[in-house]
Design goal:
65% of the residues lie in helices and 6% in strands. By secondary structure, the protein is mainly alpha-helical. It starts with 16 loop residues before the first helix and ends in an 8-residue tail after the last helix.
Length: 536
């Protein structure tokens, strides 16, 4: 029996939510997505996570599920990210959550739903000011549009993404950014070549491939600087497969070396793609028998990938080679493949039209919402106006309410003196500050209205007289606490007090009569007290 002392227990160091999200995303890049999910779930199991940290954790979970092909779990995680973003009122996280949900919808053939989510993500992105989330949203939109083969929409987003602005400090982001740009240009060239083989050496195809190779070379340099061997291998493979045909002689041996390595992922530099690139290079250098053999193996391997475009490219290359070799039956196979490619190209154009239409509809909807908000908002203070008040009272009056409705009518004491002594610009600042104080004091479901001049109204549905009196006292205190600088910051300040009248619906008071009743109550306050801070 051993008499050696037991080793001390190892206590895991606590991980902050931000560190957990960053670590999870790094693990996903390393192909260890299950570990990433475990880390996120462990942190989410804690009860005291600050709200600002929740979207990042949910986002990391969605990314991990995406990498594993768990589409429904990805949607659930994206929905949780979206819910947290809404509570946080952060459109940047909303945009990113919608992109992740759209990607899962694309992968499960719910394209219409995906286009709606992407259109909404575009709008959320337009409202985002946080640089890191803006970069991620551009990248997410670009990635989704690339998945839909909408290269015209993907490229502007991918080019605007700035990987240095990373919300959770994922170190491989700059390399992934460059590889995404390389991939979109390469895929665009590949699809043109499949749908229009006569354009294989045309200007558009050459330009797209050259651009792709330029980004791939930059990715190699970024991966080497980062010291990440996995990313460096992927970037090197991408650089090889995007080289111009004129470099076929110089590329064969390097491609052969990478082709012999079974460890590549299904990225653009994956083994089927590398095999196809090697077959092309061998073909161009006259080694046609070996080229056919490699092309056949690449086509077989491509069938095991989750990306149909990789399969399509490998199969099309093999078809072209067998056709040029004069193999019997190859011409019919080529014609059939060309027909399918052209049908897919027309389907791509139809999806592009759908995406542009969805974006236009979303823009129009938000413009209508803004117009409606402008029509029912007070331009000076930002709270509701009398038009909104009338609409709410009409809606309450036309339905059966579970409880009484209360109204507060608030009149500012001494406001005329503020205008007379300090000018209307100071008076306007006081009105804005008072409106903010009232809105922050009222409940989220209450309607705060600038009734006119220096009068405000609060409509509180399902609120009895006692609760209305308590709210009135809180509003009175909040208004009295408002102080506005007379000149610049640090100068003397000025404020006002308020008289607040309340009335509540009941057997002898209808909703239609609330305004007049609250108005009388407010004036009764002014007349019945010597000071201007009482409540009835």
């Amino acid at each position: 029996m051993s008499t050696e002392p037991a080793a001390p227990a190892v206590t895991a160091m606590p991980v902050s939510p931000h560190e957990a999200a960053s670590r999870a995303l790094t693990l996903v890049q390393l192909g260890r997505s299950e570990e990433a999910i475990a880390i996120v779930e462990d942190v989410l199991g804690q009860s005291d996570i600050p709200l600002p940290d929740k979207p990042g954790l949910r986002y990391a979970a969605a990314v991990a599920h995406h990498s594993l092909g768990n589409h429904e779990q990805q949607i659930l995680a994206a929905d949780a990210c979206l819910a947290a973003a809404r509570r946080l009122e952060e459109p940047g996280w909303m945009a990113n959550a919608r992109c992740l949900r759209a990607m899962a919808e694309i992968r499960t053939d719910r394209v219409d739903a995906a286009l709606r989510d992407l259109a909404r993500a575009e709008y959320d992105l337009s409202q985002t000011t946080e640089r890191g989330l803006t970069s991620w949203a551009h990248n997410g939109l670009g990635y989704c549009y690339l998945e839909l083969r909408l290269y015209e929409l993907a490229i502007p987003h991918l080019e605007q993404a700035t990987p240095g602005d990373d919300p959770v400090d994922a170190p491989g982001a700059p390399v992934i950014h460059l590889l995404n740009l390389a991939e979109v240009y390469q895929r665009w060239a590949d699809e043109i070549e499949r749908a229009a083989p006569e354009e294989a050496d045309g200007e558009d195809v050459r330009r797209h491939r050259d651009t792709s190779n330029g980004y791939a070379r930059r990715a190699v340099g970024a991966a080497r600087k980062l010291g990440n061997p996995n990313l460096l291998a992927a970037a090197r493979a991408v650089e090889l497969v995007t080289r111009p045909p004129a470099l076929a002689d110089d590329s064969v041996e390097e491609l052969r070396s990478v082709w012999a390595d079974p460890s590549h992922t299904e990225h653009i530099g994956g083994r089927p793609t590398v095999g196809s690139a090697l077959a092309r290079a061998l073909w161009r250098t006259g080694r046609r028998d070996e080229a056919l053999e490699v092309a056949q193996e690449a086509a077989r391997m491509s069938e095991r990938t989750a990306d149909w475009q990789i399969t399509a490219n490998a199969r099309w290359l093999l078809t072209e080679m067998t056709h040029e070799s004069g193999i019997e039956g190859a011409a019919a196979g080529r014609d059939y493949g060309l027909t399918l490619s052209r049908v897919l190209w027309r389907q791509r154009l139809a999806t592009l039209h759908g995406a542009l239409s969805a974006r236009q509809v979303e823009t129009m909807q938000h413009e209508m919402d803004r117009a409606q908000q402008a029509a029912t908002s007070d331009p000076l203070t930002g709270v509701a106006n009398r038009r909104a008040l009338e609409a709410m009272l009409a809606a309450i009056g036309s339905t059966t309410q579970d409880g009484p409705t209360s109204m507060l009518l608030i009149d500012l004491d001494g406001f005329k003196r503020v205008n007379d002594e300090h000018g209307h610009h100071v008076g306007d600042e006081v009105l804005r500050a008072v409106a903010t104080a009232i809105a922050e004091t009222a409940r989220r479901e209450d309607l705060v209205v600038r009734f006119g001049g220096d009068e405000f109204v609060v409509v509180a549905a399902d609120t009895d007289a006692t609760s209305a009196s308590i709210l009135a006292e809180r509003v009175r205190i909040a208004v009295s606490d408002v102080r506005v600088p007379i000149d610049d910051e640090g100068s003397p300040t000025v404020g006002v007090t308020a008289s607040v009248g309340t009335r509540t619906t009941g057997p002898d008071l209808t909703v239609e009569d609330l305004v007049a009743a609250a108005d009388r109550a407010m004036y009764a306050v002014k007349q019945d007290r010597a000071a201007s801070d009482s409540i009835t």
